[in-house]
Amino acid sequence: MDFKDKVVYQIYTKSFRDSNGDGLGDLRGVIEKLDYLRDLGVNYLWLTPFYKSPLNDNGYDIADYLSVDPAFGTMEDVEELIAEAEKRGLGLMFDMVFNHTSTEHAWFRQALAGEKKYQDYYIFREGGLDAPPTNWESKFGGSAWEYVPELGKWYLHLYDRTQADLNWDNPEVRGELKDVLRFWKAKGVKGFRFDVVNLISKPAVFEDDHQGDGRRFYTDGPHIHEYLKEMVADADIGDMVTVGEMSSTSLDNCVRYTNPAEKELSMTFSFHHLKVDYKDGNKWELQPPDLGRLKDLLTTWQLEMQRAGGWNAVFWCNHDQPRAVSRFGDDGKYWKQSAKMLATCVHLLRGTPYVYQGEELGMTNAGHASIEQYRDVESLNYYRIMLEAGKTEAEALEVLRQRSRDNGRTPMQWDGSPNAGFTDGTPWILPPENYQTINAEAELRDPDSILQYYKRLVQLRKEEPVIAAGQIEFLFRDVPEVFSYRRFLGTQDLFVVNNLTGHEVTLGDVPWAGCEKVLGNYADASKVLRPYEAAVYKACR
Ligand code: NOJ
After folding, report:
1. Which of 456, 459, 454 is nearest to 359 (CA)?
2. Ligand 1 close to Cβ of residue 195 (< 6 A)
């Protein structure tokens, strides 16, 4: 499957478009908007989970991998969506959450009912109420273990207590999950996104972590490469486009996950570049983004993946991240320029770009000012944890305003009508107040909009083979404000320069002098780089 010259668009189903007025986005809502997506020029649509679920983690807590939650629609809707997308040249990628299931999954219920076979599907450990098997922490806060008094056992949950980790060392579990892949492949799906898939292989021995929260024992775990190879081969998905979400992973492992000779995945998401504004690595402590570090991380991952034959998914945004323009750009004075600049930075890198719904409009953080407006389980947990640790309500709210995953989950801003044209009912989460100016309808009309710029970037990938197939080298590496690189292939050269800051930067001699500018966020030419300026030059060798 070809994925290097493609662009993927991520749809957070619950917030994309509500077709029936219940306040939740749904599959028919996605069908309604397929023409918009075709016109954007993207190739694949990654849909976040719509399977049967109690929705404690918005569908990442799956109760049945093979059925559709009524909140999102029906199996007929899925089939129609696949067929309608295909008519428009769009392939679907479905989200496979294989590290854990909901505790409402039939397997877990049977485990709770005492069936040994299903207890072996999960990670249960004997122990008394006062002694969890290890001191590991859940990624959503608190212990990673939950006690079941009737069984006298604990089960592992790296996420919410209603998301029980599966036991991948059990071949029956691996067999069940391969069947899930076969089922969706037979429906005509073209690819898969694997949720936190580098956490599936747990260590043989469970021990306390005296240096951290336990992640070093199960991240890129002992059998991870073996399990991925087996899954891809047995479920026969090697010809599909696959992306693994890799939590706290390493570059070496991502090379192995994505080098075609390994026959594991097409590409990986890694997140190190999205932690440069975490103070001392702590998401819940604020600091301005460290631009030098951001640049270094992107550069290192690009060069090493190139050297060793791996492939990156390149992106700023998804449903777990605050909005990039609010975080790394300027969502006030230089809103338009900085959103376009950020798009330029990642789309022309060596890798497959992902556009997260609304990013192409320059959607901003939510701006939610009271705790009642937040919905995310992680945000609500950490709000409590921050208060317990001594932060004031105002301080904790400020952290959420910048860090909550809800910033990326507000309704897609379709137009200036109430609720941004997302729903005729009451939206499950409020849109930011700016939807009357930042919306798809307005940006389709404006030739200079962020949306039109994204279209141009996507188009450029189709016109210039160097973007998908070329090599990369980095320029001005010692200038922290500037992210610049050269793409090259045969006699083709493309120079990309981005000013990451809101002030002017002068570079002196530049290798693109005299070259044709093919794209940029300022219409005229200038010797100095203006605030958040981005420019792309085609070389003249
Ligand atoms: C990563 C998903 O993107 C996130 O939304 C979810 O909460 C966790 N994995 C757990 O499934």
Report:
1. 454
2. yes
